[in-house]
Amino acid sequence: MRFRLSNQPWPLSWLRLRPACCFSLLHSLPLQSSCGIAFDIDGVILRGRTPIGNSPSALRRLYDESGNLKLPFLFLTNGGGIPESKRAAELSELLGVKILPAQVVQGHSPFRNLLKRYENELIVVTGKGEPAEVMSAYGFKKVLSLEEYTSYFDDIDPVAQFKRWTRTTKPFNWPRHSSELAPQIDVYSDRVKAVFVASDPVDWGRDIQVLCDILTSGGLPGKECEHQPYLYFAADDLEYQAGHPWFSILTRTGVFKERGNHAEFPADLVVDTVEEAVDFILKRESS
């Protein structure tokens, strides 16, 4: 697996990475560093829930004795399914360093950019984990997971009776994250304004069927079509990687184990562990 070192001055290059995800870092991370680091997680920092490549000690080297960051970094991953705050707490526990929610950029993190547009509109989200909880944490007020939405329509998933893993009871408890009352949702009259695919769904067969019904009916299955709701997918890797300059470092702690470089997607540097990579970065910074 690989991670990347920005070769542009901080903070410009990080802000260009995913604009809305990193603004809060400006108040908590040093701004004088000449670079920032974007770590992949699986195969670089962790394997499952186990740290690899001496990653805890490597990350500690990025802090000074007072616990302040010497070199800004974040975790950039296609994964998700839980809010960034929970992921940051999990990483902090596993790695023994303080990780802020703003240092976790998941595949669905850019959906925050759409809050002003859909904050009070009915939206449906699908994906692994708790996608509706994720969107609620971003501030969206009227969110239903696709599983929740499906449960209100008896015949929308004709083979639901054979799928024990997708059975959900209703009604659902509102709100998820606040003592305030969430806006009332009437799925039989409120049109879905947007659909979000936060990660790979567990049941693609059901989800494709329901997504098609929502999109082709203008957001209200069984009714005449008006305007098709927007459909948003997370983790557009090609755009993120090709759109910004990086110094790429490939570690041999993931799928890649070869002694040379990757034949099809060569990195700028290949090392055995993330600790070796951090050592290279710190030496480069001090030179």
TrEMBL record:
Highest taxon of source: Eukaryota
* UniProt KW keywords: Signal
Which residue windows are coiled coil?
none
Please give the GO cellular component terms listed in this UniProt entry.
Answer: mitochondrion
- Is the Signal keyword given for this protein? yes
Is Ubl conjugation given among the entry's keywords? Answer: no
**Signal peptide location in the record?**
1-22
A single Gene Ontology biological process assigned to it is: glycerophospholipid biosynthetic process
Return the SUPFAM superfamilies for the record: HAD-like
Q: Which PANTHER family does this UniProt record tie to the protein?
A: CDP-DIACYLGLYCEROL--GLYCEROL-3-PHOSPHATE 3-PHOSPHATIDYLTRANSFERASE-RELATED, HYDROLASE FAMILY PROTEIN _ HAD-SUPERFAMILY PROTEIN
Protein name (database record):
Uncharacterized protein
**Organism annotation:** Nicotiana attenuata
